[in-house]
Structure formats: C-alpha cells, structure tokens
C-alpha cells in the first residue's frame, strides 16, 4: 500500500511488475522507429530558472527533483536525452495519469464511437450497465472532458486500511489492485474496478456537463465504454491502434485488477523513448513516422480547439489560457499562427508536452516537486519561441524570469489540480533570504510562494486552484500538507535575536501528498 509514497516510489516506479499484476501491450513486428540525435544538443546549463526554484538552470534542477528521465525532441531530432539513477533508455517507467490521455486517443481512433459522443451512455448500445449508477445520464463527451458529477472524490483516505468501496482514490486503488483490500470478508470475491464504478452515486444538486471535476474513476468508465464498443480488451486495443503502429522499441505493460481489467487511470508502463514516439505522432497530426494516419486529425484538432464554454467550465478566471479537452490539458498558442500545445500529466511529475507548431516534444519522469518540474518543461519549451532560427544549443534570451513570468508559471501550475478545490495547499521551499526583505507571492487566501526564503516547507502534491494572484509582503500564513495528510505549521529557522516560533495556519481539506522536508 505504500509503493506510491516517498521514498518507496523511487524504486517501485521502475519496477511496477514486481509490485502489481500487469498485462502486456505488444509492439509491432516491424522495425523500430528511429529517434535520431541532433548534431548539436540542448545545453540545459544555459536554460535559466527563476531564483525561487533554488536552482540557476534546468541542469541544476533535474537531479534535485529526483528526475528519472528528461527527453526533448525538437524538429524530429533528440536534442536532449538524460537518465538519472537506475532509469535507462530501455527501462519501463509508470506514467500515472498520462494513461488517461492515451485512453482518450483510443476513443479518438474509434470514429463510429465518436458519432455517439452526446448520447447518454445507458440509453444507447454503449453501456446499459450504467443504469441506476452515478453515471446515468452521462455522455461520452462528459467522460472525455471530465465533467461527470458522481460522488467520487480524488482525495486519498487517511486510513491505510480504507475499505474497498469508499468513493475516493483509496477505494479505487483497492479496486484496481493497487492497494491491498484491508479488512474484508474472505469469502467475498476481491473488489474490482467495474464493481467500484457501479457503486458510485450521483452528486446531489449536480448535473453532468456543468463543471470540470477531475475524477480518476471517469477514465476507468471511459475504458469500459471502449471495450464494450470494440469487443477488445484495453491492452489489445492499445496494441492494435498505437503500440504496434508507432515503431515502439519495447512492449508496454499496464496494471490489471482481479478481473484482468486494465487500470487506465494511471497504470501504463513504457520507456521514455516510446513516450517520445507517441508525442511525435501527436505533433505530426496523428501520423506515424512512416506517414500512416493513426489518430484522426479531426480528433486532435477538436482537442486543441476547446470552445469558450469549455474554458469557462474549466476555470472562471484563466489568464494563462489553460483548458481541458478530450483528457488533455490545452495551452493556447502565443499568437493566432501558433497552435495550442497539448499536455498529458501524471502525478509525481510525469509529463508529456507536445507543441505541434514548434515540432517539440518533451518527456519528463520523476517523483517529487510538481511545480518546479512543470516550470523546467515550460522553460525548455520556450526554445521554439525565443530561438526560432538559432541552434537549440545556444542560450535562451533572458537570464531570469521577471515577476510577471513567475505569476504566469504559478497560475499555470495551480490549474493542474482543480480537484483540490479553492484555497487548498501547495508546496514550495527556498533557501536564501536577507532579513525581512523576503518577497512573497500569494494566491487566494491560503498560499504564499517565497522567491527567497529562510523557511523550510514540506513538499506536497495537491496544488491550489485559485481565482486571484497578488503580490504581497505580509502573508504570514502558509498552508502545508505532509505525507500523513495533516496540515502542519511553517517553522522558521532560528536567526540571531529571534525565537523559533511556529506560524499559525488555517484549516484545510487536504489531499495526501508524498512529501519530505527539503
């Protein structure tokens, strides 16, 4: 039950097959699609970061983030391929919720299925088993866009032996076979993902389609629809549609429950290089390296073109232009000529970033600091905008992010965890400060980011979703989440002439992070 917590995940993420049951996703019999290395590679020592990260460059930051792999494909060539620790180019790594985006791509491949995207699932031939469940009345579009109004909670239960059936992540993890079932009647069958979905209820005074609500259970329901429509298992469909067609160098694996059903909310394992190959296909409009159209371009265009209603549904205040469409995070382009970027994101810093206009793919695998990992990816992504005609090995323009760029980065990260709700918790820690001259950035009422600080904070993975970001020098309260789900006070380090007091904190409904003190 602790394989997803620090420090155990450092080993388990590279050895899921030794922890959980998995099924194979075979590649094809054809040749491996090459990933040529660029003559001149990206020098990460010349990709600067803001001072609040505690690192001068991305090269400095990656080891501190417990990075496993960092790959950058630019204009068809690898300009960066780095591995850390025990990760190798051929080693499998769990991609967590990046798997959700892969599910959506398979839905996109089933064009006949998409013609029914607005029909209630239980009233059509898709999934009549959903009658009487929390998904009754939901459509395929609701599943793709995470707008289902079931009573599922993305939060983890605090009790390690939470019973199967609890409508939260702990209950889902038990049903998926990710966590042991705890106390149960041994004469009863093991819990399964599909039985878990059937037990979910409709949230009171809510309706499907009205609001964005990130629920891992929704991806599992989407996979169920796929299997019912195609009469294939998820692993068979993934192999048929993508893995055997993209020239992958190694078969993938995916976790399975007691009934052999795939854990598609986060259970895919693949090599970082194969994840780059998938990203290359997305960057090329859904085509393989040989030119075969695997993912309909119309589906990708729809994904990158969320309407204003979709944006507003995701966030009432979204100055950075982030949206969620077809199980991808979408960032609108810098100009009308620059197409939006796609991002598939998984907990603990698993990132697949695709910028079609720049022919750029970034893959990041790690364990810990979400915000800084995303900032590192974002800074590397800027090579396409700052050095359009230059070698990617040249330094980026501008040594530091200014205050406005820092605010943009914060807003970008806070939108990635809307399930936490407003005024929740976030993590940051910084190492340098001169007396009382610390600058702070405040988000809503519950969060302060110190650009330079003499305080140590605990790392956590639930990030605020706030409506207002303001600069402040007086934010005396900071909400923190530790790995045991308890909100802890911020404790200043001792300084000459000052007592080591504890700052008070406001209460918070906190989800579980996997943290440690910096």
From TrEMBL:
Region (Disordered): 489-518
Segments forming domain Beta-lactamase-related: 67-363
InterPro entries recorded: Beta-lactam-related, Beta-lactam/transpept-like, Diverse_Enzym_Activities
One Pfam match: Beta-lactamase
Name of the protein: Beta-lactamase-related domain-containing protein
